[in-house]
Structures are given as structure tokens and as C-alpha cells.
Amino acid sequence: MEMGLSGIRIILVEPAGPLNVGSVARVMKNMGLEQLILVNPRCDYLGEEARNMAVHAGDILDKAQVVPSLPDALVGCQRAIATTAQNRGLPTNLENPRNALPWLLDHPSALIFGREDRGLTNSELNYAQRFVRIPSTEVYPSLNLAQGVAICCYELYQEATQNLRQTPSLTPNFFCTDTPRASLEILEGYYQHLEDVLLKIEYLYPHTALRRMEKFRRLYNRAYPTPEEVALLRGILRQVEWAIALKGEK
Amino acid sequence: MEMGLSGIRIILVEPAGPLNVGSVARVMKNMGLEQLILVNPRCDYLGEEARNMAVHAGDILDKAQVVPSLPDALVGCQRAIATTAQNRGLPTNLENPRNALPWLLDHPSALIFGREDRGLTNSELNYAQRFVRIPSTEVYPSLNLAQGVAICCYELYQEATQNLRQTPSLTPNFFCTDTPRASLEILEGYYQHLEDVLLKIEYLYPHTALRRMEKFRRLYNRAYPTPEEVALLRGILRQVEWAIALKGEK
Predict the structure, then answer these.
(1) In this structure, what are the phi and psi dihedrals at residue A3, rounded to the nearest 5 degrees?
(2) Rounded CA separation A36/A22 (Å)
(3) A194 CB-near residues (< 8 Å, 6+ apart)
């Protein structure tokens, strides 16, 4: 694929600062990124403040998409990385932007940034396959949103334009493969199906479903399955449903 | 010398935007830099707008030094790098931040940023020994001042803290986690159990079992599960066995 940066969306979840959104638009244009998606923005992202900060990137603001929730922003994406300030019980280590972000290049993909004050919720984090933390001091680890976006866009642009990657890629082998991976909708379809079956067999109960399902989401997200593998997994679920129904009829 | 980041001054020449100066203070603190010098500032860098953007880095603003000209800001420095958007007749090539900035570490040194609108004059550029240009698109090369500072501070911080950089680990970050992973016996126990259940529900048949199970082994091996996760997966299998048995008894 020869899409480089053009397949990457920058997703801001509930941004509250118009100055931030304007600055994000500017640095996106500086760094060759075009698709801005705002999940339920809590500010006037087309107003004067945002436009002043965007300077010559008003077009990025004008064509920004607004959606009501993170899954809507991810439709069609194959890869998603979330940025986070802390490891809030995530099962994997947080990765460095330089190591993780190149994985987004050449794919329909998303880089997700949380709210200025509270970041992303745990359930939002679950939509991502990998997690990035921008290195910073313990004294004051929390970066301004627009500066965090700037650093990530800079890393993406450098990687996209610097084909002379002198250092061996740190991307783990199985992420480097050309094998097509299941889209996030296909995965979501599997999770919904899994949850249905687990409720049916009383492995899950409605009040425990969410937290338990979180664990399975993380496990399968880590495996980064192919569409064929998801089809196999759903085949098991259908067969379980069939076996239960059949026995019930006897 | 063991001064790392502490000898580096960030110099802003005639900054006009208080929001920019506040944001610069914030990212300096994020990235472990402390000395801010303002050359003839054209804004209220201690006012409300600057402080709002600085958030928890008001101390960097409070102790910022103000001087009338660039040479005053450079007194005592051994090394100086200037940032610039274009090569305006400079005698040397512009360098990438990643290549040039580490040279400032461990020395009394300066990183110089020009005016928001016009950058640095030629005579100001002459005070620097090296010149950095942040890579950006031709369509819109000019970065916001605070975002440019953020990118440079990030590069400095990464270089200062990543002393182990000479041997890039080939182990991806997310495998380096301290979380204990399931032993091979534990995994094998799961695969046997999975195979049993899949045969029972007639998803597998004896003659297809081996090849199918290979696919599941690969999938779960890639996810590199913890013992807890394997326990959850086996819990599902037991519950499937229970559901089938129960229905069969009805």
C-alpha cells in the first residue's frame, strides 16, 4: 500500500479547548495529516479562537468530522493506538511514540487522544490495540493536548518521510506482517457475539459482563487476529449455540 | 560533566504571544528543562493568559530571565543551536532536531527560537554554531512556536533519559512487561481442554482437529496470555461443558 500518512486519522475525544483544537489542526497540516475527527467536542471548534490558532489550517477544521462516540470515529480503521498518561491497569506496557507510531503508516488507522483533564476512559482504551505514552518527567508528566499531538504528528511525519530508517525497526515481528488483520468492526462483531454466548451459558451475568469482557477484549486485541481467525472463533460460538439448542430439544 | 538537561537554556527572542510563552513553560517542565530566557518579550509573560497555559509550570515563568538582546541571553554558554524555518543564506545545512540537539546535553548551552512571525534575523542566527529545522510539509512548513519548542524539548528529554540507546532492544516494549506470562504447560493444558470441548460440540472432528488446533495455538500464543487469562478461558470451557450437560439432562 502506498498511502503513507494519508490513512491516519487523528481522533480527539471530547476536546474542551478551542485553542487546542486549532493548534492540533495547524500541526496536522504542518506534518501532512488531514483527517481530524472530533468525538463529541465540548467547544466551538469552528469559532474565532480555534481559527486563530489554526492560522493556515482552517481547512482541516472545516472538514473535521464530528461523531457522537469513539466507535463511530473508528469505523473502517484497521489499527488504533491510544495515547495515555498512565498505565491504569493496562495489561501491556505503554510504548514510546517512536517505536509504536510507525505501525499506523500505510493503513487505515487511528491515533486517539483523550480529554484535556481526564484522558480516555477504560472502555475507550479498550478500542485500541496498542498504547503510547509520551516520555515526560515525574514532576509534571501531563502534557498540553496540542503539544502531545504535535510530538506524535512529528514522529509520524519523520518516519513517513525518512525511508532511510537506519535503526532496526522495533516493531515486533508479528505486527510487521503483511497479513491483513481484522477491522475493528469485525472484532467488535466478535466481542458482541462472545458476550451473547457467555451470557447464554451463564458464564457472564449482566452485572459482571462489562469488566469480564474488558479482559477478553484486551487478550484478543493483543493477538491482533486476521479476519479468518475471527471467523474461526465465531464458528466456535455458533457451534456452542447449536450444541446447547440441540441438547435442549432432546 | 554530569549536568544532562540542567545546563540547557531555552531562549525565546521577542515572543509576542502570552499563550505561547505559557505553553513553552509547561512543556519545559514536562521535559525536565528549567531555564527560560526571554529576549525583549513583547507580551505579558506573567499575566493570566500565560499562567493559564503554563498550568503547573508557573514557577518556570516566575524565574524566567528577561534580557534586552540575544548576546545577553547567551552569556556563559558554550554551545548554541538556533531553530529556523528556512535556509536563508546560512553557511551550513539545516540539521534535523534528532541529530543536532543531543550536542547540547551536558554543557552550558542554548536552544534559540525566533519571533512567531519572522523568526530570527541573520545577525541573530550568527550567534549559533548549528542550525535546526523541524521537518514539515512544503504546503505549510511554519510551526506554532510552542509546538516547535515541545518537539525540541521532547527530543532533548528522550536523548537525556535514554542512555541505553546504543543497543536498541529487539524485544518489543509490550513484551517487556513484568506481568508474568502463562508457562507452556499451562498453555498446553488449555489447548488440550479446548480441543476436548471442540470435539464434544462437534466443531472439530478427529481428522480435522490437528490442523484446526494449530490455528488456535498460533492465535493464543501471539496474545502471550497471563495465567489469569488462561484461567478465564478455561472457565468458559467448563461453563460450556456444564451448559451442554445440563440441557442434556432436561
Answers:
(1) -95, -15
(2) 11
(3) A213, A216, A233, A237
Output the nine-digit C-alpha cell for B231. Answer: 484461567
Q: In one letter, which amino acid is B15?
A: P
> Which chain A residue's Cα is nearest to B52?
A144
Q: Residue B166 carries which DSSP code? A: G
Cβ neighbours of residue A3 under 8 Å, at least 6 residues apart? A106, A107
Q: Is B211 near chain A, with CB under 8 Å?
A: no
Which chain A residues in 5-34 lie under 8 Å from chain B, judged by CB atoms?
Answer: 19, 23, 26-27, 29-32
Distance from CA of A233 to the nearest CA of B (A): 9
Angle between helices A145-161 and B18-30 (to 10 degrees): 70
Secondary structure class of B233 (helix, strand, coil): helix
Q: Determine, for residues B232 and A243 on separate chains, whether the beta-carbon distance falls below 8 Å.
A: no
pTM over 0.90: no
**How many separate helices (H) and strands (E) can be counted in chain A?**
11, 6
Lowest mean pLDDT among A87-96, B69-78, B138-147, B154-163: A87-96
User: Which residue of chain B comes nearest to A148, CA vs CA?
Assistant: B150
pLDDT 10s digits, B9-19: 999 999 999 99
Residue among B181, B189, B175 at smallest CA distance from B226: B181
Long-range own/partner contacts, residues B203-210 (CB < 8 A, 24 or more apart): B203/A235, B203/A236, B203/A239
Model pLDDT for residues A114-170, shown as the tens digit of each residue: 999 999 998 898 889 899 999 999 999 999 999 999 999 999 999 998 753 443 333
Q: Is the ipTM of this complex over 0.85?
A: no
- C-alpha cell, B66: 528577561
Distance CA B191, CA B213 (A): 8
A8-13 and A35-39 as β-strands: parallel, antiparallel, unpaired?
A: parallel
Q: In angstroms, rounded to a whole number, what is the distance separating the alpha carbons of residues A216 and A206?
A: 16
**Neighbour-count burial of A63, counting CB atoms closer than 10 A to its CB (0-12 exposed, 13-18 middle, 19+ buried):** exposed
DSSP annotation of B57 reads G
Three-state DSSP class for residue B112: strand
A106 close to A5: Cβ distance less than 8 angstroms: no
The residues in A 166-185 lying below 8 A from B, measured between CB atoms, are 167-168, 170-172, 174-175
Percent of chain B residues past pLDDT 70, beyond the cut = 88
CB atoms within 10 A of CB A159: 20
Q: Which of A52, A147, A156, A222 to mutate to test the interface with B (most CBs of B within 10 A)?
A: A147
